[in-house]
Design brief:
CATH topology: Alpha-Beta Plaits
Strand content: 35-45%
Shape: elongated
Helix content: 25-40%
Oligomer: single chain
CATH architecture: 2-Layer Sandwich
Number of strands: 4
Structural class: alpha+beta
CATH class: Alpha Beta
Order of helices and strands: EHEEHEH
Number of domains: 1
Strand order of the largest sheet: 2-3-1-4
């Protein structure tokens, strides 16, 4: 198995909880951590923007990434949502097994 962490910024805590719950219910994520009160400074449409956002840290498997990405895009309010994934190189075997048990086969 290839385990992944997906980062996704979202505009509100309520939206973050809704997306997280739907990803876990669909078995596209074993767990989603919600980190509130993130200040983002970025360039968008030729302007420098500063926003308060919420960070989703999504634990999943690469085998479901395409479906996970599609679900986030479906649920997300941004025109171009941040969806970035990293491969997990190593982890506690029992934790990785737990991801296996809670993400689609």
């Amino acid at each position: 198995m290839n385990y992944i962490i997906v980062l996704c910024m979202i505009d509100s805590f309520e939206a973050a909880k809704s997306v997280a719950r739907k990803l876990v219910e669909a078995k596209l994520a074993a767990c989603v951590n919600i980190v509130p009160q993130v200040t983002s400074v970025y360039s968008w449409k030729n302007e420098i923007v500063e926003d308060n956002e919420v960070l989703l840290i999504i634990k999943s498997k690469s085998e479901v990434y395409n479906e996970l990405e599609a679900k986030i895009r479906e649920l997300h309010s941004y025109e171009v949502p941040e969806i970035i994934f990293f491969n997990i190189q190593k982890g506690l075997p029992e934790y990785l097994n737990w991801i296996d048990d809670n993400v689609k086969k």
